[in-house]
Amino acid sequence: MSEFHRLPLILGKQFQWHGARLTLLAQFFVAVIRVGSVNLSQLSTAFVGKTLVASNYERLQRFFREFRIDYVEFARSITTWIGVEKD
Hints:
Layout: H1 3-14, H2 19-35, H3 40-43, H4 53-66, H5 71-82
Helix pairs in contact: 1-2
């Protein structure tokens, strides 16, 4: 199993999302690190795999347009990952 394929499994412990959403979130995180931007057209070029850039771009747009993220849950998970202590 490649290192990338472990990331959705790790994310699945924090978020009770469908596997495809966890994979997209993992792709998003890796692409942000690679590209150094949150511009969706730039991120879509840095996804792991053989999917067309245009398909990655549409997938990102659809995710952010249709899926509602609980940002409080998301922020708690990130602070846990980076080791920020709760006061």
